[in-house]
Design goal:
The chain has about 600 residues and is of the alpha+beta class. Among the domains are: about 150 residues, Ubiquitin-like (UB roll) (Roll), CATH 3.10.20; about 30 residues, no CATH class; about 110 residues, no CATH class. It contains 15 helices and 27 strands. Strands 1, 10, 11, 12, 13, 14, 15, 18 and 19 form a nine-stranded antiparallel beta sheet that branches. Strand 5 and strand 6 form a beta hairpin. Helix 10 runs antiparallel to helix 11, helix 13 packs antiparallel against helix 15 and helix 14 runs antiparallel to helix 15. The longest helix is centred in the last third of the chain and has 19 residues. The protein is globular and about 75 Å long. The two termini are about 40 Å apart. It comes from Armadillidium nasatum. This is Sorting nexin-17. Its main location: membrane. It is found in: Cytoplasmic vesicle membrane; Early endosome. GO terms for molecular function: phosphatidylinositol binding.
Length: about 600
């Protein structure tokens, strides 16, 4: 059992949505034997989070190429996404810092020079989780290519996928029709969505009325496993699933008035028609025998618009159905069937006589909701994309004028239910503000990013938004070994030399051809004192990397006293000099140069 599992059996994913809009004028559709009827108004402020729920529930020790290090398992929307090192997250932070500035980003957890104890590893895990949770609250960051592209490549590295070789990916419509696409394995979800929609000739302004989903399709039923997001690669997510799943194109809006906008286009109408027929056939939409006969007549004539208009009048049209779960209302551990649509969560309960009773929780009367991860080490099993805990969705509901009550749903699809609530709220707010669904191309397009791999090497990644195959030279490893002896000498000569100082903070490095360093570190005020006798090249590389970051990042200055000197002795050169802390740019440049040069040997 991991340290995290021993210390905490229940933890809350800090993702919460608060809703504050007036309810509709009509009374909530309820059945008195399940929910009390109440038509009062609610006026609570809205602060709705984005469609990403982060957690870092545990860590793992990895042994690779003779070195040991700790990786942090990042879960997004309740499922394992990737395993990354601290320095990889630091590299992401530095790129976001350059893009958005310090005011946008939360503080990054500080570095430590010594090996971490288990307690310190757990502390760092909690701080990193807090960091990514705070980071996810900024819409600009979530929509940026740097952030989403980094997550895709972290997923790619974790699953050991060759991101350079093209693969064939199948995308399905709801009637089982299949399309084949030759794509890069790291192609992001929205890029694939645009590629699919262009292929079927759906107009550009209608693309984001639809989304891609991982679904389990068979002759008897279909189940939505997850909505694919832009932070992941559809190919990798599908490949890593334990069950056979298909990537399916479905509509992704909740306001039924949007049907008329989509149906104005021939392709859009056909997509709605196909999805509606599939949902009626599988029982998601309830229809009497008489209605079924009328629908069959429309289908035989090819009257798609008439078919769609009749279907819109049926119960559960436009709803998403979820697997059976348990609820604490009206009693603890009550088995319920849940569906979302028409600005509500509908629950159905089978009584002892076998008759279904139902009620609905209106979204406009939910004050807030949150997702909890229930850690049950004995019962935990690998989910579709990795280790997944039991999930619980809780929402605070206005039962009567003076009564607010928390309702809990425990379901493996808790995140999907939360995203459905999120979508309905966003559309309600958009309608009130006169907004619309986003159009193709609204993402913040950076073009490229630098992705640091676990071994410390970096890759320049060209983010491909066209949906076309990546050129052969779009992603290359940074040239580590191209620094020459002459270039190193030139970089060193740029610094001013001084005589030795007593009682000053020093870092003494001696470089040998045998790839061994002797390092002695002393800082004033006893802030940091440690002597390293013999360090291997990987250890000293890590040390230099941390030292460079400490100099370059203002928020980490507290690691050392204000007056900080570097003293570097390279046996290759008869040089001995000091650099004042104020020369931060030159210090960082020098240290990076030494680090890169040492990697050649």
């Amino acid at each position: 059992m991991s340290l995290h599992e021993r210390s905490c059996c229940r933890r809350i994913i800090r993702a919460e949505c608060k809703i504050g809009i007036l309810p509709d004028k009509e009374d909530t559709q309820v059945f008195s034997d399940i929910l009390p009827a109440y038509s009062g108004d609610v006026n609570i402020k809205l602060n709705c989070s984005k469609k990403m729920h982060f957690s870092i529930p545990d860590t793992e020790e990895v042994k690779q190429n003779g070195s040991e290090y700790v990786v942090y398992n990042l879960h997004i929307n309740g499922m394992f996404h990737c395993s990354v090192r601290y320095r990889q997250l630091l590299s992401l932070h530095q790129q976001l810092y350059k893009e958005f500035g310090a005011s946008t980003l939360p503080p990054f957890p500080p570095k430590r020079f010594l090996s971490l104890t288990p307690v310190q590893i757990e502390e760092r895990r909690l701080n990193l989780e807090k960091y990514v949770l705070q980071l996810s609250q900024d819409a600009r960051v979530l929509n940026s290519d740097i952030f989403n592209g980094w997550l895709v490549w972290a997923q790619n590295e974790t699953q050991h996928i060759n991101g350079m070789e093209e693969v064939v990916l199948d995308v399905y419509l709801m009637n089982g029709q299949k399309f084949n696409f030759k794509v890069s394995p790291t192609l992001q979800t929205n890029d694939l969505l645009e590629k699919v929609c262009r292929h079927i000739h759906l107009p550009k302004h209608l693309i984001y009325y639809f989304s891609l989903y991982l679904m389990k399709l068979d002759n008897r039923d279909f189940t939505i496993v997850k909505a694919l997001q832009d932070f992941e690669s559809p190919y990798i997510s599908q490949k890593c699933s334990r069950m056979p799943l298909k990537i399916v194109l479905r509509k992704s809006y909740w306001n039924l008035n949007n049907d008329f906008t989509v149906a104005e286009d021939k392709v859009g109408l056909n997509l709605l028609y196909i999805q509606t027929m599939a949902e009626i056939e599988k029982g998601w939409i309830s229809a009497s025998k008489d209605i079924m006969r009328r629908l069959a007549a429309f289908q035989a004539r090819g009257a798609k618009m008439e078919y769609l208009r009749l279907a819109q009048t049926l119960k559960f049209y436009g709803y998403t159905h979820f697997q059976k779960c348990t609820c604490d209302f009206p009693e603890e551990n009550t088995p319920v069937l849940v569906s979302a649509g028409n600005k509500e969560l509908n629950i159905r309960i089978r009584d002892q006589s076998g008759v279904f009773k139902e009620g609905s929780f209106r979204v406009t009367r939910m004050r807030c909701w949150r997702i909890s991860s229930i850690k049950e080490p004995v019962q935990s099993v690998r989910g579709n994309d990795g280790y997944m805990s039991s999930l619980e969705l809780s929402f605070e509901y206005l039962m009567s004028k003076d009564e607010m009550r928390w309702i809990k749903l425990r379901s493996p699809q808790a995140v999907l239910i939360s995203l459905c609530l999120q979508g309905m709220v966003q559309e309600l707010l958009g309608n009130k503000r006169g907004g619309s669904l986003r159009a193709s191309g609204e993402r913040i397009r950076k073009g490229s990013l630098s992705y640091m791999k676990r071994d410390g090497t970096s890759m320049k990644v060209i983010l491909n938004h066209t949906g076309e195959p990546l050129p052969s030279d779009t992603s290359t490893t940074s040239p580590i070994g191209e620094l020459s002896l002459r270039r190193l000498s030139e970089r060193l000569s740029e610094l001013s030399f001084r005589d030795g100082h007593r009682n000053s903070e020093l870092i003494n490095l001696k470089f040998y051809h045998a790839k061994i360093f002797f390092v002695r570190v002393h800082c004033e005020n006893s802030c940091y004192k440690q002597e390293f006798k013999i360090l291997s090249l990987p250890q000293i590389s890590r040390f230099i990397h941390l030292a460079v970051g400490s100099v370059m990042e203002p928020e980490l200055k507290t690691i050392f006293p204000i007056r900080f000197y570097f003293s570097i002795f390279l046996r290759l050169f008869p040089l001995y000099f000091y650099v004042k802390y104020t020369d931060t740019v030159k210090v960082a440049s020098l240290m990076q140069t030494v680090f890169l040069y040492a990697k050649q040997f």
